[in-house]
Design brief:
By secondary structure, this protein is of the alpha/beta class. Helices cover 29% and strands 26% of the residues. The strands form three sheets. Strands 3, 4, 5, 6, 7, 8, 9, 10, 11, 12 and 16 form an eleven-stranded mixed β-sheet that branches. The longest helix is centred in the C-terminal third of the chain and has 19 residues, at 260-278. It comes from Planosporangium mesophilum.
C-alpha cells in the first residue's frame, strides 16, 4: 500500500492520467505550457516543488517553431528540460503512437527522470486503427498508457475537446468514448465565462478519483506576450491566473444547457440582488446576502449565477477577512484576488501574475533554445532494434 503523490497538489496525481477538456480557443494548450514551465522550474506546488524535472511534450497539431516553442518560452519553461519526441523506425521517423510505443516511452521516462508527459491533444496519439468512439477499442490504447504512468510515476496530462452537445457535466462532453474520462484518474475542465466581462476562463476539478473533488475553481486570463527572435518579434498567448472563482465550469455549462425558465430565474435573482445591495449602500457581506436570498426562495447556485449577471464583484475585506459583494458601477467584473503561497493555499491557487519571463526579459533577444530532441528506439518484428 502506498500514499497518493501529487504532481500538482490535490489536482494532478503522479503516476496517473489526467485529462483537461474544453472547447477550442480557451487556452487549453496554454495551460499545458504553463504546467510544463512550472515542472521544469520546480515551482508547481506538489511532489516536485523545489526540484526542476524534465517534461516530454508530445504535440501534433501545432508547429514547434511558430507555436509550441514560443508558448513554452513565454510561460517561463526551461527549454533545456523540455523534450519533443520522435520514434525511429526503419529508415525514418514517426510520431509517438499509442499503445505501440508505451514500452519504449517508459524507458526514456526512467532514463531522463521525466515528471510530466504532456499530450497535445491526447486523441492525436491514439493509433489510427483504433475507433476512439468505442469504449473497448479505446481502452486498448489508454490502459497500457495508464500502466506505464503507474510504473514510472510520471504524470500523463492530455488535452481533449468538448463535443457540440450541451450538458452541465463536463465528463459527458468529452469527444470520443467515455473511456477517456473513465481511465483518467482526474479531469480538470475549462470553460470561458462569457458573463464575467473580462474574457476570463474558469478551471474546475470535474473528476478526482484519488483525492478531493471540492477544490476551489480557478480563474485565468490569456495575455499577449512578445518574444524577440532572429527574424523579428513573435506573439503568443500566456496564461495568467487571477485567483479563485466562485463560479465553476459546471455552473457555466449549466447556463448553456439550461432552458428559458432557468435564465428567467437567474435574471429575476439578479434584479433582487441589485435591489438588496442598493438598499444597503451598494454592498453587503456575502453571508448576509445568502441568508436573505434563501429566505426569498433563491437557491445558492442561482445566486452565484445572478451575481455575475448583475455585474456584482466579490472582494475580501476587514479582519478577519470576509467576503463582501459590491455593485460594480463600471459594469466590469473584477476577479477575486489571488491567494499567494503565504496564505496556506499553495496547493490550490497559483500565485497571481505572469509565470513566464518579465517584460524586460521578453524585450531582449530571446535566442531561445529549441526543445531537446528525444528519439525512441522501437524493436522491429524480428526482435532487433530499429535504426
Amino acid at each position: 500500500m502506498r500514499p497518493v503523490h501529487w504532481t500538482w497538489t490535490d489536482r494532478i496525481p503522479a503516476g496517473s492520467i489526467t485529462v483537461i477538456p474544453g472547447r477550442e480557443g480557451i487556452g487549453k494548450s496554454l495551460t499545458l505550457a504553463w504546467l510544463s514551465a512550472q515542472i521544469t522550474r520546480g515551482t508547481l506546488p506538489g511532489l516536485h516543488y523545489g526540484t526542476p524535472r524534465p517534461v516530454i511534450y508530445a504535440a501534433t497539431e501545432d508547429s514547434w517553431a511558430h507555436t509550441i516553442g514560443p508558448r513554452l518560452y513565454a510561460a517561463g519553461a526551461d527549454l533545456d528540460m523540455v523534450y519533443r519526441v520522435d520514434v525511429a523506425y526503419d529508415a525514418g521517423f514517426d510520431a509517438l503512437t499509442l499503445p505501440r510505443d508505451c514500452a519504449a516511452l517508459a524507458v526514456e521516462i526512467d532514463r531522463l527522470g521525466v515528471a510530466l508527459l504532456a499530450a497535445d491533444p491526447l486523441l492525436s496519439l491514439i493509433a489510427a486503427g483504433i475507433d476512439t468512439h468505442r469504449d473497448r477499442d479505446l481502452r486498448t490504447a489508454l490502459e497500457p498508457l495508464a500502466r506505464m504512468a503507474d510504473q514510472t510515476g510520471c504524470a500523463v496530462v492530455g488535452l481533449a475537446h468538448f463535443n457540440k452537445s450541451t450538458s452541465a457535466d463536463a465528463l459527458n462532453l468529452i469527444t470520443g468514448s467515455r473511456a477517456f474520462s473513465a481511465v483518467a484518474r482526474a479531469v480538470i475542465a475549462i470553460a470561458r465565462d462569457d458573463e464575467a466581462g473580462d474574457g476570463s476562463c474558469v478551471m474546475s476539478q470535474a473528476k478526482n478519483n484519488l483525492g478531493r473533488l471540492d477544490l476551489p475553481s480557478l480563474r485565468y486570463v490569456v495575455e499577449s506576450a512578445e518574444i524577440s527572435t532572429d527574424e523579428g518579434p513573435a506573439y503568443v498567448g500566456r496564461l495568467v491566473f487571477t485567483g479563485e472563482s466562485d463560479r465553476s465550469v459546471s455552473d457555466i455549462l449549466g447556463e448553456t444547457a439550461g432552458d428559458g425558465d432557468d435564465r428567467a430565474e437567474r435574471d429575476e435573482a439578479a434584479a433582487w440582488l441589485v435591489n438588496y445591495l442598493a438598499e444597503r449602500g451598494g454592498e453587503a457581506p456575502r453571508d448576509d446576502i445568502a441568508k436573505a436570498a434563501k429566505a426569498a426562495g433563491i437557491a445558492e447556485r442561482t445566486l452565484k449565477r445572478a451575481r455575475v449577471r448583475a455585474h456584482v464583484v466579490s472582494e475580501r475585506s476587514g479582519f478577519p477577512a470576509r467576503a463582501v459583494w459590491r455593485i460594480n458601477t463600471g459594469h466590469a467584473a473584477s476577479p477575486t484576488p489571488a491567494v499567494g503561497p503565504q496564505s496556506g493555499q499553495l496547493g490550490h491557487v497559483p500565485s497571481p501574475g505572469p509565470t513566464g519571463p518579465t517584460a524586460a526579459q521578453l524585450a531582449q533577444p530571446a535566442h531561445a533554445p529549441s526543445p531537446t530532441p528525444l528519439t525512441l528506439i522501437r524493436s522491429d518484428a524480428t526482435g532487433g532494434s530499429a535504426a
